[in-house]
Amino acid sequence: MSYHNPYTPPRKSATFDDYTLAEIRRAAATGIYDIRGAGTKRKVPHFDDLLFLGASISRYPLEGYREKCDTSVVLGSRFAKKPITLKTPITIAGMSFGALSGNAKEALGRGATIAGTSTTTGDGGMTDEERGHSQTLVYQYLPSRYGMNPKDLRRADAIEVVVGQGAKPGGGGMLLGQKISDRVANMRNLPKGIDQRSACRHPDWTGPDDLEIKIMELREITDWEKPIYVKVGGARPYYDTALAVKAGADVVVLDGMQGGTAATQDVFIENVGMPTLACIRPAVQALQELGMHRKVQLIVSGGIRSGADVAKALALGADAVAIGTAALVAIGDNDPHWEEEYQKLGTTAGAYDDWHEGKDPAGITTQDPELAKRLDPVAAGRRLANYLKVMTLEAQTIARACGKNHLHNLEPEDLVALTIEASAMAQVPLAGTNWIPGKGGF
Amino acid sequence: MCGIVGLFLKDKSLEPELGNLLSDMLITMTDRGPDSAGIAIYGGTAEGRAKITIQSANPSADFEGLAGDLEKAGIKAHVWVKSTHAVIELDASKLADMRETLERIRPAVRLMGSGESVEIYKEIGLPKDVVARFGVRAMSGTHGIGHTRMATESAVTTLGAHPFSTGADQCLVHNGSLSNHNNLRRELVREGMTFETQNDSEVAAAYLTAEMAKGKDLGQALTGALDDLDGFFTFVVGTKSGFGVVRDPIACKPAVMAETDQYVAFGSEYRALVNLPGIEDARVWEPEPATVYFWDHDKAA
Amino acid sequence: MPIFDLSNTPLRELNSALHALSQGANDTEFEVVNPRGSHAVAVGIDSPVTVAVRGSVGYYCAGMNDGGRVTVHGSAGPGVAENMMSGTVVIEGDASQYAGATGRGGLLVIKGNAASRCGISMKGIDIVVHGSIGHMSAFMGQSGHLVVLGDAGDALGDSLYEAKLFVRGEVKSLGSDCIEKEMRPEHLEKLTELLERAGVTGVRPEEFKRYGSARKLYNFNIDNADAY
Q1: Is C97 on the interface with B (CB under 8 A)?
Q2: Which domains does chain A have, with CATH numbers?
Q3: With pLDDT > 90 as the criterion, what percentage of chain A qualifies?
Q4: Which CDD domains is this protein grouped with (chain C) (predicted)?
Q5: pLDDT, mean of residues C171-181
Q6: Does B284 contact C38 at a Cβ distance shorter than 8 Å?
């Protein structure tokens, strides 16, 4: 009697999946770690796991239009002589000229200005174009100090001391050789064509006690006019927020691991830093314990994509949010329009992240003038403004449905969670229950 | 993060001024550490006598009738109450008994320090308030160290304040942030050390005590610390007769020293030293990284 | 001449007075007394004003100086003349760590010793130290000149770019990618000029050695991984 084996489907390993196998081969072949842009790509607990309760018999919604839902926010009320007022709590996060093309920076400035919000410079300094196109400009003060100078400090609207960012808390900035064009090299005072290494600590202070003195110096140089932000990646948000407050910050900026970068090691992006969702409540708790909630403002970034994300971040206690990756997508990054070229680069629209190679078909994360020409800053600016307005309207719609006349009146109690992780991180109950892991019932 | 000050007197005539000088130094460092402050003063030794400093969250309940209760337990002692702290002065031979007895009759009380010479006072609050609360200005002594705290990764509590004392007459203050203190704490617990907090600085203090219990002197223990402790640190350490300073090899946290014929002083910033007598002519320098500096009354400066 | 006594005048008044100077203002000489280790003294100067500070200062004295001439008759804390754009800063005593950090131009003269990280991340500043400097000096120095008459500590010029370092005394150790380089006529000329501007006499440029980047870390190569 013959025995005939039934078909066995080939089984791939979850641990050694296709990405992992390819990466091992790549490392063996090249002898260099993988460098890429963007934030974490793997699935982590996020705002998708939270839901708003909306209105019901016990809670009444607001009508649209006439029954106002205010979206404005004031940043820097603690110490600055000239705090910033924005029409919407959605700001544009720091991204450098050098990582982005001049046209892209211009587009961001135009769009933000139409929408009544701010943009932020990046690791390379302030360009005249960005100052010209952006009505409200936040100037980053980074470990590298590329391009740092007092004139730009004084013509900025706010100063953001960068301790770290979500994609790489503890890492420096990287801008590999291909993107150091003449202009970038000049601004950064570096030889053209080299791989730029950046320091991970500030050159002239370490620790919150010395940060306090540095912030005081920056205030003295700018005659106490500008709000001073302190930006950290998602490491120890409870302590980091408390220390930023004690060091004298006006605003704390918290960037979770979904936050993007121009270029850093993939291993860093995927394995260091916490999801944005895990950062917010500890930071808010620190502010509340110090009696500083709403007095020192909290800006949250890393994976903000829609008005729902905005509303959820604010409900958990943030005062504003920042978008980076989403803003780039709005102006055309990773657009299917260029699919043929993405394929030639060995990737596809939506997955392209080798931004450090400077070959971006969309003309955004590149210094190549031919590619950069593809981005029309005026049209792209309009797209960004549209997107910002849509997100603002979405947030307002949700807030009204929850009975709020100001986005800041959203509370954690307006939310429930779909998963245990999200429930524990956001400290809101699992939907349909009154259970928060670690906290028992209400 | 924090501010540290230290003063080691060579000139005995300055001893009555010790508390006053240290208080000014400490208050100048307030910006670096608004959360809590602490001071260790060495002085007032007498042959065969020892001191214990204790702290209570409920001073009236715990300190009321304490001397009487101790006598009933067979220990004759003087008790001086200073706000939330009390200094118990007793026969040195009764020191071990005292700790056991205190655990029995006043279990809520915490031990701040003990030994022949040291008194340790620490509380949450601004340096000027802490200094006033304990009457530090009036204290005299041979040397002292002080600390103002900006808590980094552990809570703002009395126990979390520095100086940390983990052995007789030994205490430590720290500016910086250790990165392997959790592993080290677990090892030290296995070696028999006990801990009151999750604070990294307490681990450093316990490490030194453990090393000295194995026979090393302070200088050797501090040298060992350079290898065994990871992170950023400037330590100022007090012992019965001396005062030590060490910075980690990277040496990012600040440290300024000043020396005259009358004293050796330490401050996190030069500002802390400006009111010291003769500072204009003092030798002012910054300690080198990974180098142990030590001054000892017994070994004659 | 405006005199600011920092023992009874807020620092704000000094710095805002310095910032308020317009072109052709009459008072271009300032004196600051009793600084007593204060931080951020005379920061953000942006006109050709002269400031004499009588005493020792804390952190960031003359930070971001652009065109001023600041003399400290005492010692300076961490970060003196940080990010200086142009002008001159003279420290009669010693300077603490990060002296001249990320400086982009101008001249910083330290008559005593400077501590660790002197000239860290320098971007065009010229620094002349009559005494010795500490470890990790000129770390990631991009451009400018560091001249040291005394000794240098460990890891001089670690991760150096194009800053030029001249040391007359002993160098305890060199940092990653920093090597001794040939002294050519143009270097001797530059050194002569710097020594003159810094008021140094009694030494000859030939007594110095030049150090610069080996440029092996300019483009990433896995075989250099040990250097990181």
Answers
A1: yes
A2: 35-410 (3.20.20.70)
A3: 80
A4: GXGXG (cd00504)
A5: 96
A6: no
All CATH 3.60.20.10 domain ranges of chain B, comma separated, are 2-45+126-296
Q: Residue B270: list chain C partners with CB under 8 A.
A: 37, 56, 58, 75, 77
Chain B residues near residue A206 by CB distance under 8 angstroms: 232, 252-253
| Residue of chain C whose alpha carbon sits nearest to that of B269 | C58
Residue of C59, C102, C217 lying closest to A213 (CB–CB): C59
| pLDDT tens-place string over residues A140-165 | 999 999 999 999 999 999 999 999 99
Q: What value of ipTM does the predicted structure carry?
A: 0.95
Tell me the CATH number of domain C3-227, given options 2.160.20.60, 1.10.150.450, 3.20.20.210, 2.40.10.10. Answer: 2.160.20.60
Chain C residues whose beta carbon lies within 8 Å of the beta carbon of residue A203: 82, 98, 101-102, 117, 120-121, 139
pLDDT tens for residues A79-107?
999 999 999 999 999 999 888 999 999 99
- Of the candidates C56, C115, C135, which has its C-beta nearest B270's C-beta? C56
The CATH label, of 3.30.1370.110, 3.40.800.20, 3.60.20.10, 1.10.10.10, for the domain at B2-45+126-296 is 3.60.20.10
For residue A179, the model assigns a pLDDT of: 63
Class of domain B46-116: alpha beta
Q: Which residues of chain B have pLDDT under 50?
A: 301
pLDDT band at C199, cuts 50/70/90?
A: very high
CB contact under 8 Å between C59 and B269, yes or no, is: yes
CA A302 to CA A93: how far, in whole Å? 9
Is B2 labeled as catalytic in the residue annotation?
A: yes
Query: What are the tens digits of pLDDT across the range B208-260?
Result: 999 999 999 888 999 999 999 999 999 999 999 888 999 999 999 999 999 99
CA distance B239 to chain C (A): 29
**For testing contact with chain C, the best of A190, A221, A222, A228 (most C CBs within 10 A):** A221
pLDDT in tens, C28-83: 899 999 999 999 999 999 999 999 999 999 999 999 999 999 999 999 999 999 99
Q: Where in chain B is the domain with CATH 3.30.70.260?
A: 46-116
